[in-house]
Amino acid sequence: MNHQPIEGFSKLTKQGKIDWLVNEYLDGDQEYQKILKQYWNDNTELQKLHDEFSENTISNFYMPYGIAPNFLIDGKLVALPMAVEESSVVAAASKAAKFWIDKGGFKTTIINTEKLGHTHFIFNGESHKLLHFFNFKLKKKLFEATEAITANMRNRGGGILDIKLVDKTADMAHYFQLKASFDTVDSMGANFINSCLEQFGKTLKEEVAKEEDFTKEEKDSLQIVMNILSNFTPDCVVRAEVSCKIDDLKDDSGISNEEFARKFKQAVTIAEIEPFRATTHNKGIMNGVDAVVIATGNDFRATEACAHAYAARDGQYRSLTHCTTDNGIFRFWIDLPISVGVVGGLTNLHPLVKFSLALLGKPSAQELMSILAVSGLAQNFGALRSLVTTGIQKGHMKMHLLNILNQMGATEEEKQHFVTYFKDKTVTHHEVITEFNRMRAQ
């Protein structure tokens, strides 16, 4: 091995962890110590708070925190907080918001809010006997056994909605599920759901052991494999949409309203039928969604996993957005499955998350679902608008220009020159380097 493994890394102090890393992996170069420490917060209490969000923390990793204003959502004007490092995401969302503000804005509908979890178990016995046991004895016991866990959630209007026995033996020998649906109101609810499911597993084991209709072999065959929520929530869905007369589209790219609507719909249809395009199409949607998810302290990995599973729910990966141009009306919408919370986790701890939620008017979980769907739809509209008119690179590379110049060590004066230089040109990496070298050679 090129390095020595370490025992007890987690027990070292933060400085001890850094010292070991620098000495073991970075040749003792103290410059790396400075890099890590320059991102520490001067407020020691605030830094301690950030350190305790995760494990083995040695520094903070900053992301730009930007604002996309002018979102008219269900009649309310909103400014969206977006934590994202990719150029042009905030700009594209802002431009789309401005485009739709005088056309009625974005309208949203909560389609459903059910979340799911499963107790996965093995049972080598007659399935009809297990089903009878579930319907007439177990289901009631499962609700009773979780009453203490669900009490607070029920007081807030949520709780366990239903429990079903699912026979999966056609896919895997002796495999069954207890499939439960939940309403977790304003919390994301992961801990709540998992606590309920773990109790399901215990109760299932206890009740099977007591059931006289099962043989000893059947009782002994029961194995609780795992109790865990699912991040696929196809019944926790929000719709966001925009619409207007095609005559009112008024795109400023030089093409007619009719041609813009036709090409836009074609672009969406291609993403609906072509997985290679759909993947990039949906990635752009999630640029907008994830930026607000992160800014509001929610789990963007869960959001991503759910959205992409939903996009492939019929066996082929497809676009999350859809478009029609019937009877002279342009309509563009997204059905987004998403599970988020506004209480618990980072929402009560991270100062910038608190700021984000305050900026959004302290939304409920359902209102945040709507905001996230709008952010994704706006991002997709902005991307498609560029793709079918000027092309994606013109706007994206202009936003990326400062990144290129910073990498090259450009001065503020040189940066201003390049902004002017590319005012009426498409930015390319080659052209930036050529012009930069020309300037430096003078």
In terms of structural class, how would the helical and strand content be classed? alpha+beta
SSE succession:
HHHEEHEEHHEEHHEEHHHEEHHHHH
- Unreliable residue stretches: none
How many strands, which pairing sense, and closed or not: the largest β-sheet?
4 strands, antiparallel
Shape: globular
Radius of gyration over C-alpha positions, nearest whole angstrom = 27 Å
Task: List its traits.
442 residues, alpha+beta, 4-stranded antiparallel beta sheet, 10 strands, globular
Structure description:
This protein is α+β, with helices and mostly antiparallel strands and 442 residues long. 49% of the residues lie in helices and 18% in strands. The chain is built from 16 helices and ten strands. β9 and β10 form a beta hairpin. α5 crosses α7, α9 packs across α10 and α10 runs antiparallel to α11. The chain is globular.
Offer a concise description of the structure.
By secondary structure, the protein is α+β, with helices and mostly antiparallel strands. Helix content is 49%, strand content 18%.
SSE order and pairing:
Elements: H1 14-25, H2 31-37, H3 44-51, E1 65-73, E2 76-83, H4 89-100, E3 107-113, E4 115-122, H5 127-145, H6 147-155, E5 159-167, E6 175-183, H7 190-210, H8 216-221, E7 223-229, E8 236-245, H9 257-273, H10 275-295, H11 300-311, E9 321-324, E10 329-337, H12 351-359, H13 365-387, H14 392-407, H15 412-421, H16 429-441
Antiparallel strand pairs: 1-2, 3-8, 4-6, 4-7, 5-6, 8-10, 9-10
Helix pairs in contact: 4-13, 5-7, 9-10, 10-11, 10-13
